[in-house]
Amino acid sequence: MNLLSIKAVSGIFLFVLLLGVMYNFNTNRTLEPSEKTEGTSVDGCAAKTITFCPEGHLKSPDHLKYKQPSIIHGRTNVVTVTPWLAPVVWEGSFNPNLLDAIYKPKNISIAATVFAVGKYTMFLKDFLETAEQHFFVGFTVHMHVFTDKPKEVPKVKMAAGRKLTVHTVPSADRWQEISARRMEIIQKLIEEELQDNTDYIFCLDVDSKFYDRWGTESLDRLVAVIHPGYYKTNRDVLPYERRPSSKAYIGLGEGDFYYCGGAYGGQVQEVHQLTKTCSENFKDDAKKGIEAAWQEESHLNRYMWINKPTKLLSPEYLWQDFKSKEPEIHTIRFSGVIKNYAAIRPNA
Ligand SMILES: CC(=O)N[C@H]1[C@@H](OP(=O)(O)OP(=O)(O)OC[C@H]2O[C@@H](n3ccc(=O)[nH]c3=O)[C@H](O)[C@@H]2O)O[C@H](CO)[C@H](O)[C@@H]1O
Ligand SMILES: [Mn+2]
Predict the structure, then answer these.
(1) Residue 123: which domain range?
(2) Which of 32, 46, 83, 121 would be a feasible disulfide site paired with 152, CB 3.0-4.6 Å?
(3) What is the CATH number of the domain that holds 171?
(4) pTM assigned to the model
């Protein structure tokens, strides 16, 4: 063998050896700590501690009886899926008993944030009392109330498994600032208190009431609510931020839907990313002397356009009391109350 062929043979030998080592590494790979199951059944996904169970893999209790699903009968006057194949939740598109039976054994915990600064404390009683009747009834719920007037938070009787924490926040001279500042406060709440012990979070406007069920059908990674005022509107006239110099900018011919600043949510990690990005962008705009057309709602719309929500809630999930019911709206679950802006906001 000449020197050249000795080199070639040893090269091939080394290559085969390397392949063998790689194969062995892959087949004998042990689970990383984060992938390990902790005290779970072999069926998997039953206990909250399983961390590698893929999102969306829903495990039904054995032999549960419920109405037969159909793909040819159901809601017909509304669209129940987006072009990126995220479900849009409407009354009649889901089975609440089936979903509750699936989520109950997962032992999930849900946080909700609500801000009541200045005169907005007047909305807390109805908000909290109706949440007891309709918001994730039977599940672990932790309400976080942010206010500058902790003494004005009403005592509302809460069912077992539900609790309320009052956080004190400073007031502000402008309602726009109170509203927009929520994003950063929610970001900090997730970092400091929720990220290790809470599964889902919903961030809600206080000037609203629950009228019907808001429950497990709304759970997903990143959840947006379609605004009741604009779901029939051409996107070129939606009230997105239209100045290219703003980080909330959405151009003509762009955007999907107009989402509410008054209700959004999802898994805490997702909502952390959302609130962090939106508050940073809001502050970057402020440095340039820009405030987006609808403050954090504009930044949320820009975020949700790029980061597609994995589930959309129809306007049933944030209606407005002054609006008459439309034919496609079969129930109203949560709705903004009629308010006298001039009387309750610190500025016009
Ligand atoms: C239904 C809905 O999507 N509403 C959004 C819309 O206007 P809205 O007219 O609904 O805004 P709003 O007056 O309800 O203010 C938003 C929220 O900020 C809090 N607040 C406001 C003022 C005040 O003096 N004290 C106080 O606590 C309170 O939780 C209130 O619910 O556009 C705003 C843009 O900034 C927000 O995105 C709102 O969420
Ligand atoms: Mn509101």
Answers:
(1) 89-344
(2) 121
(3) 3.90.550.10
(4) 0.87
